[in-house]
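Many introductory courses stop at the sequence. We go one step further.
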Amino acid sequence: MTFSGDWTLANYTTLARLVEQVQRNNLSNVSLEVSQLGRVDTAGASLLVKLAGSTALVQALRVSDLGTEQTALITTVASAMEATEHPAPKSNPILAFLASTGEKVTAVARLAWLLAGFIGETLATLFYILPRPSRWRFTPFVAAVHDTGLNALPIVALLTFLVGAVVAFLGATVLQDFGATIYTVNLVAFSFLREFGVLLAAILLAGRTASSFTAHIGAMKVNEELDAIRTLGLNPVELLVVPKVLAMMVSLPVLTFVGMISGMIGGAVVCAITLEIPPSQYMAIVERDIGLTHFLVGIGKAPVFAFLIAVIGCLEGFKVSGSAQSVGEHTTSSVVQSIFMVILLDSIAALFFMEMGW
């Protein structure tokens, strides 16, 4: 078989069609002649190897008087195409599972370590500036309160109102079988004062505000504004984190209170419509059967949840690596971590308060 002419990318389509035709004829054990080859590039060399095979082609090159550059190019392409990937070693599934579990545990431990360190840095900065009113930053604090509290007020009120109505419907349906529908009032008031009010408000802020904090600080890091702040001798934690944390610790208790009231109003509407319990009787039952302790237990968890949500959102913003994709990834991570921490702490608090009899 004699190869001639230019085997270049410009002729690739025609040459590829010819190679397919020759391969159909199964021309094996034929001698190769490559001395008449013209110009050859990588695309043409790959077709030569595909047609003749790397070993036979290299042997034909050794006995030909083809140019040095062409010989070197074809030999290199033949060597590259001859190389086969080494199969991956078989791994023990038990060891692979243990390794994967270890990596995840290490990542969680590293995340907890970073969060603990950032909480310590935030508290140290907060306690440093509290006795120094000249360093208080009222403008970002008020802006953060407006963003995290006032703007979130309608959605929190609406959501808790609807959940309160759903809880009342469920309670009325279940308690009707026992002739105890009057206790629907206790169910709604008890659940919203202790758990649902603060939990729904915290989850809403975790999804809405933590992502906002991460995106804000992450965008500043992408634009190198954080480096500019440090260059000016300012502390980013004092300038960006502390006002947001304080604003959240003010906003969430207010939103929790609004959530409690809205949920109980939703329950009162359902009780008035389906159970014929008038609002005056509803309020009288709440006043008679529901103690102040339940309200204090619910509202007392709000500042703790607010602090954690704000700190996680800001920390994820500082962890942005400098690209828009990283901003999106850490925004998602801040929401997931915030909601997980809120539910975890609420579960621990519920068990603790139950054991304490509060």
